[in-house]
Amino acid sequence: MIKAMVLETPIGPLALLEHDGALIGGGFTADPGELHVRLHPSLRALELTATGDLGDLSKAHLAYFDGDLTALDTVPVHQPGSPRRERLLAALRAVRPGETVTYGELAARAGLERAARAAGQACAQNLVAPVVPCHRVLPAAGGKGLKRFGGYYYGPERKEWLLSHEATTR
């Protein structure tokens, strides 16, 4: 069984999915089902059940949005994938609040030189936002306006907010 709840945050609803004490889904949506259908097939087969609270997982997210930028560091996560993808997501989780990296830098941190595209794919497939902080990855080319933030599944405005929150809360 997968337990699901929706947490209200300063940038909109955040759906959280938990299984066996680990966060398996987190995303800025009011519909946990949107995350459920994107899960790894081994998890997607499990029933989704709504709950009002996920205990420590909920508290950690609330603390993060209240300014404790390290509150998400101890949240257990589970995202099944290839060893390469798991290495990239582990390297991504090690990017500290207030810090940003490029896709190439993320690949290098994972020991996968010249795998910037794979780093981009791992970010695109990340289902545990903001705990696995794909919002901290920026394109090397930069850009103007919101384009300087690059892609983010939940929109560049949310990515900008998260980066600003982490920069000003430090």
From TrEMBL:
Pfam families per the UniProt record, alphabetical: DNA_binding_1
Superkingdom of the source species: Bacteria
Keywords carried by this UniProt record: DNA damage, DNA repair, Methyltransferase, Transferase
BP GO annotations: DNA repair; methylation
Residue intervals of the Methylated-DNA-[protein]-cysteine S-methyltransferase DNA binding domain: 85-167
Reaction equation(s) it catalyzes: a 6-O-methyl-2'-deoxyguanosine in DNA + L-cysteinyl-[protein] = S-methyl-L-cysteinyl-[protein] + a 2'-deoxyguanosine in DNA; a 4-O-methyl-thymidine in DNA + L-cysteinyl-[protein] = a thymidine in DNA + S-methyl-L-cysteinyl-[protein]
Molecular function (Gene Ontology), one example: methylated-DNA-[protein]-cysteine S-methyltransferase activity
The keyword Methyltransferase is annotated on this UniProt entry: yes
Name of the molecule in the record: Methylated-DNA-[protein]-cysteine S-methyltransferase
Lineage, opening ranks: Bacteria, Bacillati, Actinomycetota, Actinomycetes, Streptosporangiales
